[in-house]
Amino acid sequence: MRLALAVVLLAGCHDWSVFDHLDLGASVDASVAADLAMADLAADDLAAPIDLASLDLTEGADWRPLVSNVSVNLRSVWGFDDNDVWIVGDAGTVLHSTDGVTWAKVNVGVTVDLYAVSCTVGAMWIVGDGNTILRGTGGTSFAPPTNNSLPSTTYNDVIAFDSTHACAGGDQGIHCTSNGADWSRPVGGAAILTIHGTSPTDDWALGNGTANYHNGTQWINLPSAGNVEAVWETDASHVFAVGPSGNLATSTGGGNAFTQTTLPGMHNLHGVFGIGTNVHAVGDAGYVIHTTDGVMWSSEDIGGIAVRLRGIWGTATALYAVGDGGTILKHK
Fold it and tell me: 244 Cβ partners below 8 Å, 6+ apart?
């Protein structure tokens, strides 16, 4: 078909009369002749321009890029369902999609860098620099806590359990609310880079060299999981944390200590998401790694996109990753 396509393209700038004397059976290979015959070289067909924007240049890859219309670094993604998805990033950037493809900017009233977003039924939280904690309802109204006496800090991550219960990890420890308005600091001290859990009585907060588990009654300090940047509890029996140089730390849940290993390639990893043992992690230079059993990992093809990927989130039927330079990827 390559020869057929070449003839089609060249025909656009040559006299069509040359085809009047072309003996397909004698002058070219029979298979090529068949290709030419199937190409339908009608001038009317050639007049229609090719829509380059509609071409999937990552054909064959596992992921495809989406147009964000922003150039800032995007750091976190979360949604209410497959299509109602939110992304946050630098300079107060918040993007929202209702179809899982197109994105619109949302003004939340801040210009600081935003590091994490978490959604739950009836509410969502966004956190970032400058002591920023924002609670959103309905996707149209965002406001800081009505009573926040916490010290000024940077919040690195947040987990929303329901419309009133949430916890954030910051440079000055763990911060939580049980009514959606008043925040307290149950654990101070070491910086918390990532926080996640399945409920207010089963959650994890990790930083470089520090690990904590909350059982609903108290926060328990655990042995270190190493240097980590992201943690995800996929269910009550599987917890995955990732970090620099391919660090992977796993726990069987329930406050059990982490076991560390090193993933292939030793890439710096910044985000992790999973359901059960079906887990993805993302990192530098467009690196995406995947496991279906929680043990054996393999890299995925994102079509040559080599930016730093910082966040990943999904459902059983949709998966998104975000990163530097306004990058948004969706799993095919």
Answer: 227, 229, 268, 269
**246 vs 130, 136, 228, 286, 306, CA distance in Å?**
30, 34, 10, 14, 17
Report which of residues 87 and 146 the model is more confident about: 87
On the question of pLDDT at 327 being above 70, the answer is yes
Domain 64-331 in this protein, CATH class = mainly beta
Is residue 267 a contact partner of residue 287, using CB atoms and an 8 Å limit? yes
H helix runs in the chain, sequence order: 2-11, 24-27, 30-38, 43-46
Determine the distance from the C-alpha atom of residue 278 to the mean position of all C-alpha atoms in its chain, rounded to a whole number: 15
| DSSP string for residues in 42-107 | -HHHHTSPP-GGGS-TTTTSSEEEE--S--SPEEEEEESSSS-EEEEEGGG-EEEESSSS--EE--
Residue 307, φ and ψ in degrees, nearest 5? -85, 165
Structure tokens at 148: 């926040």
pTM: 0.82
Whether the Cβ atoms of residue 68 and residue 74 lie closer than 8 Å to each other: yes
Residue in the block written with tokens 């998104």: 320
Per-domain residue ranges of the chain: 2-53, 64-331
**Which long-range contacts link 239-244 to residues 24+ away (Cβ below 8 Å)?**
239/204, 240/272, 240/274, 240/279, 240/281, 240/294, 241/194, 241/204, 241/206, 241/272, 242/269, 242/270, 242/271, 242/272, 242/281, 242/283, 243/208, 243/268, 243/269, 244/268, 244/269
pLDDT of 60-116, one tens digit each?
689 999 999 999 999 999 999 999 999 999 999 999 999 999 999 999 999 999 999
What is the maximal distance between C-alpha atoms in the chain? 88
Cβ(211)–Cβ(226) below 8 Å: no
